[in-house]
Every structure is written in C-alpha cells, then in structure tokens.
User: Which sequence fits this backbone?
C-alpha cells in the first residue's frame, strides 16, 4: 500500500508540472532564453552518457540531471571537474563540488562552476582597431547550494538554489535559478529507477552597468550627455526531465549493465530524447555511452533553419575507482575515482572532460 501511495505521489507531481511540457519546443520562443551555460553539464561522469541519469544519478554527479540523487551520499564527497569546451577554442569550464551527509537529516551540497573564454580584443565605436584598446575577459559563474534527503529506501527528493552571474568588466547580469527533483527506486535489488526533475526555473535576468551608457553630443549644442541604454530581460532555459533506468546484474552482481532513457521537455528550444548504456565491473571500472536526439540533429549547422544544437548527439566516458582504504565496521572506506568523458560536436573538435572525486 505504501508503494502505491508513492507512485501516486509521483504521478501527482508530474501532473503539476505538465503546463511546462505544453510550452516546450515552441518555435516562437526558440532561442529567446539566456544563461545558456546552465544547459552545459560540467560533471564528467554523467556527461559520458549524455546526461541520461535523471533516474539513477547519485552523489555530486547527479546535481546537473536530478538533485534528488545527492541523497544517496553516505559520507563526504569532494569533486573537481574540468572541461575543455570545444577542443579548438579557449573555452574552459572548472567545477568544484562538496557533498556532506547529515545522517538522518539529509545531505547538503555546495558547487562552484566557472566558465572562462580567455582574453578578447576590445573595440569601440570611436576606436574600432582591436590593437588599440586592450582586452577584456567574459566570465560566467554559478554558485549552488543543494539539499536532498532519502525519505525511505525508495524515495529521494531534493532542491538546488543557484546564483547565476555572467558578464564582462563593465556589464553584468545576476539571477537566481532553482532545480528540484525526485527519484523512485524499486525492485528486489533496487534495479528499477524512475526520476523527474525541473531545472533552471526562476525569474528573468537583465544586464546592467557602465558598458550600456553612451556619452552623446546633444544636437545643436556643444554639450555632451550620458545616456543609459536599458537592457531587455531574458528568461532562463527551464526544462522538465523524465527518466527511467534498469540495472541488469550478472555473476552475483559482479557485473552490471544499466540501460537508461530520458525525455527533456525544453521551454525555449527543441525537446530532447536520450538513451544511454553503462557497464560496471564491481565498483572499480565503468564504461558508458549515450546518444541525444533532437529535431535537426543531422542537419548542416551552417545551412539548416532547424538545427539549434551543434552537438552530434554521441558521447562516451569511463571511470576508474581506486579504493584507498577499506571500510571497517561502521567506518566508511575511502575511494578515489578518475573520470573521463568525450562529447562529439559538429565543429571545433568536441568536448573533453576529466574529473577526480574523493569519497570518504
């Protein structure tokens, strides 16, 4: 009976979020959202199979897909991930994460995500030559505080509050985004998993700063006046994810093959469908791959009017976990994991990611 109540609760949550789905994929709204960095997965493990783990993500790696997965953390996790975003560019993403179990009170997480673009030559209306005006550095940074809790062996739920900051030296924008999600785990060996997450919901953002001001000469006079241009506001790229996964266990659970799928209802671009596979040998070695499909994915990026994503859709990754200290009694062991992921793109050589996670 309790299991039935839990399933009913999941259905009710989905019904509440259905208005979001009805607005998804709207051609009239396509490309009108900002803060596009919120759509980039900075975590190496989940990136290796195309962020398909809405249902079965766990620990810090679940924060991008479904914060509810943070509730699986049983001790302290510290993660550092780095992505060279587009191999032939100067775009880099650095992410730091910390998760701490509070026992029966849940799990608290903290993340810092920074995206840099190198130096860009500055030009102005009065001085259009790039070499005469120095350089500037665009920066994007997200700070997140997450909380998740296991309400039973089957139900996990959580939420994240993110501060979104982006801009250059004289124009900036700051906003707040909220993620929320729930996971349901069932089966004799907890091999069946379902997940729902709402991502990047929040008020609109707009830019401000001295860079929007213009010192103009008043007509028919010798006086200059500073005129401030107002920036139009833009919406956050909100989305609703619905995922499921199943674990096939072999040889007394020595080998595991996980099949996962995810549907992402996008408010400002094409909806996405993702499928992924992950193979694991014990808790030592993992291989994963995924593919994401959306409208126009096979079209030419330079000629198509429907292609809005430069990704080819494929991704692959691997993890090696080194046990530094075995668990003794009630004391948790210490593991150090090394992760790698590669995501294919139509241009600029793809996306390479590496990550290191210490679990203790």
Assistant:
């Amino acid at each position: 009976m309790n299991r039935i109540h839990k399933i009913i609760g999941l259905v009710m949550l989905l019904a509440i979020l259905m208005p979001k789905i009805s607005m998804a994929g709207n051609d009239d709204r396509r490309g009108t959202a900002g803060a596009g960095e919120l759509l980039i997965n900075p975590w190496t493990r989940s990136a290796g199979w195309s962020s398909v783990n809405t249902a079965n993500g766990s620990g810090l790696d679940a924060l991008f897909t479904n914060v509810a997965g943070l509730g699986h953390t049983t001790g302290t996790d510290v993660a550092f991930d780095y992505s060279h975003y587009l191999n032939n560019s100067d775009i880099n993403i650095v992410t730091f994460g910390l998760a701490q179990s509070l026992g029966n009170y849940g799990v608290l997480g903290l993340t810092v995500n920074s995206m840099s673009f190198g130096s860009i030559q500055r030009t102005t209306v009065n001085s259009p030559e790039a070499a005469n005006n120095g350089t500037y550095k665009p920066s994007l940074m997200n700070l997140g505080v997450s909380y998740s809790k296991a309400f039973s062996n089957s139900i996990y739920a959580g939420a994240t509050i993110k501060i979104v900051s982006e801009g250059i030296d004289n124009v900036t924008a700051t906003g707040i985004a909220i993620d929320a999600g729930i996971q349901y785990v069932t089966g004799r060996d907890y091999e069946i998993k379902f997940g729902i997450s709402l991502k990047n919901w929040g008020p609109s953002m707009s830019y401000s700063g001295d860079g929007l001001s213009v010192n103009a000469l008043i007509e028919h006079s010798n006086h200059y006046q500073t005129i401030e241009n107002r920036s139009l506001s833009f919406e956050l790229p909100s989305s609703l994810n619905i995922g499921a996964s199943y674990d096939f266990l072999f040889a007394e659970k020595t080998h595991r093959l996980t099949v996962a799928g995810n549907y992402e209802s996008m408010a400002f671009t094409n909806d996405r469908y993702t499928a992924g596979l992950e193979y694991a040998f014990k808790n030592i070695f993992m291989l994963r791959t995924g593919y994401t499909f959306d409208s126009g994915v096979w079209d030419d990026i330079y000629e198509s009017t429907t292609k809005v994503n430069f990704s080819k859709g494929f991704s692959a990754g691997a993890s090696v976990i080194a046990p530094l200290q075995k668990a003794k009694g009630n004391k948790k062991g210490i593991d150090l994991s090394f992760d790698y992921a590669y995501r294919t793109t139509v241009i600029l050589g793809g996306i390479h990611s590496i990550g290191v996670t210490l679990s203790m």
In short: The chain has a mean pLDDT of 86. Residues 97 and 111 are 4 Å apart (CA to CA). The helical segments are 2-22, 44-47.
